[in-house]
Amino acid sequence: MVASAKLKMASPEPKGLVPFTRESLEIMEQLSAKKHSKEHMEDLKPDSDLEVGKELPFVYGNLPRAMVSEPLEDVDPYYKNKKTFIVLNKKRTIFRFNATWCTLSPFNSIRRTTIKILVHPFSQMFILISVLIDCVLMSMTDLPKWGPALQNTLLGIYTFEILVKLIASGIWAGPFYFFGDPWNWLDFSVTLFEHISRYSPLNFIPIFRITRNLRILKIIPLNQGLKSFAGILIDCVKKLTGVVILTLFFLTVFSLIGMGLFMGNLKHKCLRGPQENETETLHNRTGNPYYIRETENFYYLEGERYALLCGNRTDAGQCPEGYVCVKAGANPDYGYTNFDNFGWAFLALSRLMTQDYPEALYHQILYASGKVYMVFFVVISFWFAFYMASLFLGILAISYEEEKQRSAEKAKKNKPELQQALTELQEGKKGAETKTTQIEMKKRSSTSMITSLDMLDDATIRHEEELKKSRKSCPFCWYRFAKTFLIWNCSPCWLKWKEFVHMIIMDPFTDLFLTTCIILNIHFLALEHYPVSVETSHILSIGNLVFIGIFTAEMIFKIIALHPYGYFQVGWNIYDSLIVLHGLTEIYVTHFHGLAVFRSFRVLRIFKLGKYWPTFTILMLTLGNAMVALKDLVLLLFTFVFFSAVLGLKLFGSNYKVYVCNIDEDCQLPHWHMHDFFHSFLNVFRILCGEWIETLWDCFKVAGQFSCIPFYMMVILIGNLLILYLFLALVSSFSSYKAATTEERDEAKNLKRAMARIKKGINYALSKILCKNQNAIEETMDNVSDMYVKENISDHTLSELSDTQDFLKDKEKSSDTEKHTATENENRSLIPSPSVSETVPIASEESDIENLDNKIQSKSGDGSSKEKVKQSSSSECSTVDIALSEEEEMVYEHGKPKHLKNGNGQRSSSAQISRDSKKGKTWQNIRKTCCKIVENSCFKCFIGLVTVLSTGALAFEDIYIDQRKTIKILLEYADMIFTYIFILEMLLKWMAYGLKAYFTNGWYRLDFMVVIVFCLSLVGKSQEELKPLISMKFLRALRVLSQFERMKVVVRTLIKTTLPTLNVFLVCLMIWLAFSIVGVHLFAGTFYECIDPTSGERFPISEVMNRSQCETLVFNESMPWENAKLNFDNVGISFLSLLQVATFNGWITIMNSAVDSVGVNMQPNFEDNIYMYCYFINFIIIGLFLPLSMLIGAMITNFNKQKVKQGGLNIFITVKQKKQYRALKKLIYEDSQKPVRRPKNKFQGFIFDLVTNQVFHVIIMVLICFQAITIMIQSDEQSPKMDIALYWINAVFVMLYTGECVLKLIVFHCNYFTSGWNIFDFMVVVFSITGLFLPLMVGYYLVPPSRVQLILLSRIIHILRPEKGPKVFHDLLLPLMLSLPALLNIGLLIFLVMFVYAIFGMYNFAYVKKEAGINDVSNFETFGSSMLCLFQVTIFAGWDGMLNAIFNSKWSDCDPDKINPGTQVRGDCGNPFVGVIYFVSYILISWLIIVNMYVVVVMEFLNIASKKRAKTLSEDDFQKFFQVWKRFDPDRTQYIDSSKLSDFAAALDPPLFMAKPNKGQLVAMDLPMAVGDRIHCLDILLALTKRVLGKDVSMEKVLSEMESGFTLANPFKITYEPITTTLKRKQEVVSATIIQRAYKSYRLRQNDKNTSDIHMIDGDMEVQATKEDTYFDKAEEKSTIQSHF
């Protein structure tokens, strides 16, 4: 019925719109009263195309004027008996109202009037304008005089709107009533609170005034697109519920762990020790001789605000001499960073989860607790910043794909209807428009005689463009104007000149010349820098004028060749004309003061390359289409940001002004505050960028914690949800990017033609030059070959040798040809397809001359030549046939000079041939032996071990190596041994495989490079002048890549997925180049400032205004006029600054310098150039967000392509791991614990029932949660009574867990230890008891009580246990488990990259001055510290500080002659050039690898979700089936009782799941039943499978395969003979009931005495029989429906 209804709607002549009359209402009431066709209406659903707010589809025809704003009968069949009617406005927008109940009659004049007002488009527009005006007023800090009056007017408008809606819709909370819409509730509440706040004298007026800001959200229901996206995001939030709960769970657990590990540690500071004369005084004042309250007695590092933290562990921070480490003072960061209670610990973990300024917290914890706790942060970073983020992305991606699929299905359904309607509507217009276009094209084509291919292509493009334009129904006068003034057909002379210009301007070499000019212009733009010499400036100015002239000439010539009409039809031509117009205007404008910024628009010339670059054009078109489709989502995001900014302004704006002294010593507002709208907007933008913790601290100081945290949580959660959804939508759009299938523009084709012509010309010239030499060589070689073939080869022709080769090929085909072929292809390059083993063939080109002798001699002997050739000419390790190569022919010919000179034609003696043959066999045997050695698994393991040892030895060469003489000597000898081993391995492979085969393999070339590095390092040690070569030793670690297949697979896959995106990367680089050039134009030379050397602060502008005044203030002969280390003085440093902004490291400092800049040689002033924030906002959106979407979209496309090529499996795992993939899935789904039978002993049976009951498990989980709560209530410096109470509480929990363990041991005995979970619980109990009593013996200092609590807390992991904990947690952790092998492989590669860069950092930055990001914890002095630094860079945290320290290369910043104790190295300066390359390259490589890790998990998540949506069954579904079966059949009899069948079907997972009531469906399946009413598991599985997949020929084949497979897997299955089926059994029960009923009726007639008793019994049985009969009828009906499914 649904389909038929929709077909009626989609029919060419749909039912017309009918006015809603009283008769219509009566019919609805009758239908509603009778409940007509109730079952049919249950199946109907509202039509999504006829929802409120959408336009009426075209299939309903034109809307008569008489029906506009009038009640009409509802056209949606779903509402036929719902007592509703619709109203349409002029724009065909649908409004739906209720006809009865709590409202006026639809025919009431008042209600009709209000409905007309409500649905009128002007009404909605008026309300929207009112809301926008109100938004402007709310963003103002100080209202104008007329502001309050305007606010009152707007309030009156809103009140009137609510009254109109109440009358039109009715006062009720049901559908289509006023209070049935949540947006009306919001509007009503805001208006009510605003009335109260204006006219009520209550004290809570400020709260109600703040609620007025919710008026901004009224924009959402006024726009249907915004409303739709809001609904979609609400659905996303519902789907994210499980992830949010899991995230909160892990945040809580890690917060509790942090409390147990770090509580009170951040108060440990270095305090100045008491002097001899101070001891008595201090002791009398504080009672502790080592405690001083004055903060000036703490130790401070230079330039640091907070005192130096320290710890009592050996790997923690140490205090300098004269200071002791004590617990004193407050926590760092104004006391807001600590783990002293659960609230602050939770905030710290939230900060780590979002990776906001994590490096500061890392350093604080490592200083106070020790470097070993870096493991804690590594786990948190992986779990939250990676996996939980992947879960959020995965679920949002699923939601977006589902919405995309629904939209596609809807569009596909509506496409025929829309096309038919458009055809009817445009039929009349199309003929006239096409005719006009054809006349135009005829006239234009008659004016030109050029018929080249280019002209035809241009004509086609112009025709299509004009046809599109003509559809806009322009007035006929415009066509006449275009024909008269824009198409120039003046005279024959002009046409000839036009043809000549067309030939020139459309020539391929012209496009090549223009492309070269564009590239040169980009180069000139990039050459601008500060300071610039006069000569360079003059050259750049002349170059600019030349390029403007060239582009102007191009535009003029194209206008002449194409007419103005044709020229401006192409978008790129319009863009070129704008570039020319800007260039010509700039010549005159730049002379005016204040308009110099106009020159920044020169950067638009860069994008002229897009005309010749297909990838750029395609990406821009994709971006344009995506933004058009997502415009409502972008508008929704902007609305939320605006709302948050206004709300922050109203909540905290006044507080920032009143309590400004709390955040600034000079009582001046900082750069980041919320006192005005612009700064509030910037603050919200910063929060959405992930930087929120520092502004939250300021908010705490001015407004308190309870008001700031809700606001920040709202902005972070909702804002990130919107941004992630938009990001995924863009990635999905760019993942459909296909460069190969898109037609290129004529300019790009011309460029290829020009390059092809140049290449052809060069080849022709080279062929002419080399022609004579080649002819001479060919003649000489022909003569020699002829003489040799005639006189020496005799009848042994090459064709016979080819027969031998055919025989060898046939033999090889018989021995696993596919394996050898794949192996050969794999080892020929660095990007092969993965294979199980790696064998390199002996190259035929490397065979010696004796090989040829053997071949020829074996052929001349007897008839069994083929076998002889095989024995003597082919290696056992070779997978390639040895053929007679040209090189062998030349060598052999060169080896017979005497015979050729004598010319007697005699052949070599048999003795000579025999000697040569023996030499050849010896050589072949040597090569065979070498091949066997290098292919031996033991040899490979030995080389792998040596590689690991040689790589690990690099970690010991730190700054302390000179102090460890023994280790240094051992490492020197080890380097020599490793070098000799690798050289020997290389020689063996040369012998075995040959040089050509060796050097054609990418991995062996890498090994060769490493061997060269080994040799160079040895040479560098022997000669002092070559000592810098030792620093190349870090490349030795790269050899690990070629030794381990897991890393090789990851490297190959990364290359395959990354190299195709190089074009997209260049487009992104071009966007960055444009922003860097604009940055140079805006900020070059403006970051200089005059610094006070004594305080390090900037002089105020009242004291120093410019450079000349600063130079008069010379202190100690030093120049105080200094530049920022990161600036925009040239394009190179601009790129680095933009990279810091893109990674959100040091970007606040850069932006502050930009907004404070005044001009060149001018002293910066606070926010003098405040709107320069817009430059960085645009860069983050256009230069970071969009290019990131492009790159990741292209990478996902390549990822999916490679996945399809490899059969849909994970592409980051090896072949062996792919075989283990199914075993892993089976392990996940199967329960490792075998079922234990219930003991026969009553006591043990009672305990068994107790511990196996689900209630017992729930009680244990409740105890674990209570134990976690006891940790939450703890705090630092709590009372001794609290400590004692917590000790006994822990003792109680230990006793309870011990009791649980004892009970399970009593029941399960040895089977208790067969489960890993039980072993874990047992270990927890043992360690808890030990930790409880050990402190009593050794003291609480060595074993603090918090350790016992953490041990007990570890049992909370039971919540994640499959089948025991929540199923949603198991589903969310499943992608991690399935993608774990791939993640481990990628993790190994990340570790290797970190290792290589750590060694390089130790060699280059070990002695850099400790400041900024380089300190005692984070430095490059040792391998461990280097790894800590690189871990920070991996998560893009704190690398700006490290780079600032490495930038210290001048005498004013460092000391190049500083003596470093224990080593001969002098100085503490860095190398900026090496540092930039080091950090930039590492960031790019690590970003590439980490993005692929995200892709692996998200794609695995999508894969699981797609399998669930698809109506198919996988191996996972069968595993889950048998897992549930084990619970119902613990004895593994393969049978269950028929009474359990309903519960079993309800316990299954989808798609086999059958919700209760399901007995009717199960009966209809007609399952065979054995003796005892038992049903076999295979019968149930086959029936459920048939139910899911339906009936089909292929389905029968699948079922037969399943049955045969089950039989093979269970050969000892007990045979059974079905005695009946479920359907027959039901029929028997019904038949028996009928017989009983008839018999009892007979007894009633016979026994009149017992009429009343028998009648009562008969009535009861009749009711029961009737119920069962009805139930059976429904079962039959459902089985019939299922058979038709």
What does this structure look like?
This protein is mainly alpha-helical and 1685 residues long. 65% of the residues lie in helices and 2% in strands. Helix 15 packs across helix 16, helix 19 (508-526) crosses helix 27 and helix 22 (614-629) crosses helix 26. It is globular. Mean pLDDT is 78; it is low at 1-14, 36-42, 277-293, 432-473, 776-913, 1611-1615, 1654-1658 and 1661-1685.
Secondary structure: elements and pairs:
Elements: H1 2-10, H2 22-34, H3 38-43, E1 71-73, E2 84-88, E3 94-98, H4 109-119, H5 121-138, H6 147-169, H7 182-199, H8 205-211, H9 219-222, H10 224-239, H11 241-262, E4 268-272, H12 279-286, E5 323-327, H13 342-353, H14 358-369, H15 374-446, H16 453-470, H17 476-486, H18 492-505, H19 508-526, H20 534-567, H21 571-589, H22 614-629, H23 631-658, H24 677-688, H25 693-703, H26 705-734, H27 746-793, H28 798-813, H29 817-826, H30 849-861, H31 865-873, H32 886-894, H33 897-902, H34 910-935, H35 937-953, H36 965-993, H37 995-999, H38 1002-1022, H39 1039-1043, H40 1045-1058, H41 1062-1083, E6 1089-1090, H42 1107-1111, E7 1121-1122, H43 1131-1142, H44 1147-1156, H45 1173-1205, H46 1215-1229, H47 1242-1252, H48 1254-1272, H49 1280-1308, H50 1316-1338, H51 1345-1353, H52 1367-1378, H53 1380-1405, H54 1423-1434, H55 1439-1446, H56 1472-1509, H57 1515-1528, E8 1535-1537, H58 1541-1547, H59 1559-1564, E9 1568-1569, E10 1574-1576, H60 1577-1589, H61 1593-1609, E11 1620-1621, H62 1622-1646, H63 1651-1684
Antiparallel strand pairs: 1-2, 2-3, 4-5, 6-7, 8-10, 9-11
